Amino acid sequence: MKTFTYTARDNATGSVVNSIIQADSERSAASILLSQELSPLSITEQNRGSILDKITNRIRGKDKVFFTRQLSTLVEAGLPITQSLHTILDQTKNKRMQEVIQDIITSVEGGKTLHDAVAKHPDVFNNIYIALVRAGETSGTLDRSLKRLADQQEKDEAMMRRIRGAMYYPSIVLLVIVMVLVFMLVTIIPQIEQLYAGLNKPLPLATAALVWMANAVKYYWYLIIAGVFFVVYFFRQYMRTETGIKMSSNLKLNAPVISRLFRKMYMARFTRTADTLLEAGVPMLDMLDVAADAVDNVYIANSINVAAERVKGGMALSKAISDQEYFNELVPQMIKIGEQSGRISQMLGKVASVYEDELDEEIKAISTIIEPALMVFMAIMAGGIVMAVLMPIYSLVGTSGTSIAK
After folding, report:
1. Do residues 331 and 352 touch, judged by C-beta distance below 8 A?
2. What pLDDT, on a 0 to 100 scale, did the predictor assign at position 239?
3. Which pLDDT belongs to residue 52?
4. Could you write out the DSSP letters of every residue in 214-270?
5. Kind and range of the H or E run holding 45
């Protein structure tokens, strides 16, 4: 489907409208505008844009939160869906998000439900979003479902922001280490090599290794960059395969240090998703089906699917997940209390809050460990390079002193 910008005159008010629309062709776009009682004055296909434009206009979490929060507020105020969507479209700055909203408007005005319209954009709206919108439309509580969605998105964004924030410092330190290493290889090491070559002396092993690295960087830098690019590309392709996804999921659950962090993150994600869906009136089995996708880990998803089959057979959810390997004991215990009191959604929300708080502490603890570990690593790297540089100089000084003594 192509995107067109258009200028049209509103037949009812006579005002000129400038906006965007998605259609298969220019003629289809004109037909859609006419069906909306708009007389097209000009219709122009948008360029697909450069790679830079796609990066700068990618849809971020805050764009989705803004869309959901605004739609909830406008629907709660009593505005029709299409009018609410048009209002949000005018307020949206992100071009890619504008295209998505315009397509949703076209679908809704064409007779589709809102959840069918958003389901056409799975790269923007996940299964949780679609399930909650469907539940809200079915129960007549769309505004409350959208509000819960906005709250859920904000919590997810905050969690991921904390995790990404914890990785900024290590990434910067590693980048500095690489830059210092490259600088020394390109500037200092060649001078040491020339000095030894002039004296017809063999280089020490460590210095010879650095000279080899310096020559590789100097003469084959383009091959190194190409090699890094292809390694990263093929690694990313591999991680999208079934084997790669399983390896990544297993690593996150069992690797030292990070496994505690990821396990708590998955528990927080499962319980928060379950709380949001059940509170919106989504049936238990549908909730489990959506939550299995939401956790984004194949092993935990398999555990949830096993639990769903047991629940389908009449077993209580707390018992169904009690023996699952990757579920922490607190989860089935709190779910059992919720089942007994009839407040399972509230209990899941409390568990989610507990794990989100613990996740914050884990991130702080890991950050505290990483910082001194990186400092030690940097000291070892710098010390090794300095020794490789100074060893030849000391060797030359010692040789010169012996010659003078003789």
Report:
1. no
2. 86
3. 47
4. HHHHHHHHHHHHHHHHHHHHHHHHHHTSHHHHHHHHHHHHHSTTHHHHHHHHHHHHH
5. strand 38-45
